[in-house]
């Protein structure tokens, strides 16, 4: 096994997809609670991201690219390791958003069939799913408490 950006990409994508599948197909299953809703899977992706972005900034390519302009961002992502880090960033944050949507929907009493399109759009197009969920949640549980402790049970 050789650790390459392509190999790690091929490992990270199915892991994230597993998390999304569990959120959509088995939201109340014990494994979903333990692996996804607990935040363990996004934290695993976050750890991998931290290692990749840290190693990028310690590498000779550290001065390549940046975040001050679109040209610098494009130059940064010429490095496959930085590109992989950026992809893991998307996977981690989108899955975290899907988890929040799931827990918030549970707390508000949003039917799962209404949450599923939001989750699918969040998985595929991040902010579009968030936008749809923000519309759905306007109609459910406007008077819920701020406590989410019961939502994870």
TrEMBL record:
Superkingdom in the source lineage = Bacteria
Q: Does the keyword Transmembrane helix apply?
A: yes
Keywords linked to the UniProt accession: Membrane, Transmembrane, Transmembrane helix
Please give the Pfam families that the UniProt record associates with this protein: ABA4-like
Protein name (record): ABA4-like family protein
> What is this organism's lineage?
Bacteria, Pseudomonadati, Bacteroidota, Cytophagia, Cytophagales
- Family matches, as InterPro entries: ABA4-like (IPR025461)
Question: Mind telling me which residue stretches traverse the membrane in this protein?
Answer: 6-27, 34-58, 112-136
């Amino acid at each position: 096994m050789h650790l390459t950006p392509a190999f790690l990409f091929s490992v990270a994508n199915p892991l994230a997809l597993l998390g999304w599948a569990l959120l959509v197909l088995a939201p109340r299953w014990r494994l979903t609670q333990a692996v996804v809703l607990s935040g363990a899977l996004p934290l695993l992706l976050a750890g991998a991201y931290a290692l990749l972005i840290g190693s990028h900034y310690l590498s000779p390519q550290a001065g390549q690219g940046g975040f001050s302009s679109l040209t610098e961002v494009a130059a940064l992502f010429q490095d496959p390791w930085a590109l992989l880090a950026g992809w893991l960033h998307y996977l981690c944050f989108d899955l975290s958003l899907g988890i929040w949507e799931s827990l918030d929907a549970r707390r508000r009493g949003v039917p799962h069939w209404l949450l599923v399109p939001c989750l699918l759009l969040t998985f595929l197009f991040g902010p579009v799913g968030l936008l749809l969920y923000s519309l759905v949640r306007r109609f459910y549980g406007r008077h819920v408490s701020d406590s989410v402790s019961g939502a994870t049970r």
